[in-house]
Amino acid sequence: MSEVTVQGGQEVLGVGRIEGPILVVEGGANVSYDEVVEIQDSRGQVRRGRVLEVGEGFAVIQAFAGSTGLSIDGTRVRFLGNTLHIPVADEMLGRIFDGLGNPIDGGPEPLTDRYMDVNGQPINPTARIYPRDYIQTGISTIDGVNTLLRGQKLPLFSGAGMPHDQLAAQIVRQATLGKIAGAPPTEGEEFAIVFAAMGVKNDVADYFRRSFTESGALTRVAMFLNLADDPPVERIVTPRAALTLAEYLAYELEKHVLVVLTDMTNYGEALRQISNVRGEVPSRKGYPGYLYSDLASMYERTGRIRTSKGSITQIPILTMPNDDITHPMPDLTGYITEGQIVLGRELNFAGIYPPVAVLPSLSRLMKDGIGKNRTRDDHPRWGAQLYAAYARTQDVRALASVIGEEELSDVDQKYLKFGRAFEREFVNQSFTENRSIERTLEIGWKLLSILPKKELTRVTLDEIAQYYKGDDASN
Question: Which of 116, 316, 353, 409 has its CA 20 to 30 A from that of 430?
């Protein structure tokens, strides 16, 4: 191996070892962690990579496009002396890029002289603003009982075969129609959506393209697509590239940005694959021990800061292997983020869309973004009452499975009726239905009116007098 200094960095001829997408290069000096490299094979073709690990006299490099066609002696590695940067511009909205930020929609390269590090800039915790502004998604199970706030990170936990893709597309489409601007929408505020797909099949990518184009949402969306047949190592960069653009739009152009990342489980698999190739000691289920901090480095690139009017709201989507919510990916994601929206298999089998399982779902910031002057004064107590009533329904269903429905008390019978109506009318809504918060609250009160007044212990008497529509004679 030989080393030669060239303009812009140093170049090494020959590598010590090639294993999958990993190259071990000996002889480089003053190489830094995360530095970008250009890898040239014996035919002169160039691909990019980045430094994963450095030591005395050697560097471990990850090739983004894999190592096919590379040889030990005929490979040249040029260290560029800088970390991976991507171009960022407002004109990137309405465009489609690959996982590394290169256009794949046939359009030109973004015309900009602004480049930003894909690893982002750490946010001073004291500069953060606590999220308090409500975002209307048009979906009752989110807006009503698991409210999303501007600047929040709220993941979606799903499973194989469930309609998380449709739900993500619906949120993006309805947010693009102006609902992300808050409740009520504030005049003059700009919003945008950054959508990143990792390891998805071609038909899923085509579905998102078609859905955004037909609805007119694509003009406000920047899409980053890493397909299933793309190199897995690119999946490590894809969400970071998307978040880099989101940071530029939010903190420099002062837009309100919604970031949707799907599927984070594929990201975790790519991370595990790279970790195994590097020979790192595996942790739970073969994932690297730094999985928590790696996920946090992306999830924490969310929120509002005092120096900008913009914000980043993040919805990561994870498919839980075997519907196991204790799997490392959803488990650690739940610790880092501020709640979770869980899709239920039984509701999906029953033909309910979206099949949001209300009881295991949670928005930890919901209480700070609803109520008077935000949604409606009765919203907090209404949500608590609806949740408590549905929880009681599950207990009644368990009892009915033992003794039979005909043996239940009159009150328990009404809870069963409430539960069926709740799933059919509140949880269930069409893919094209964009419900206002007023409509969501109206449906909730209609369902609560199935129950006797004496069962409504979490709302005020004034609210019962104003919104309750039940039969007083039966109470």
Answer: 316
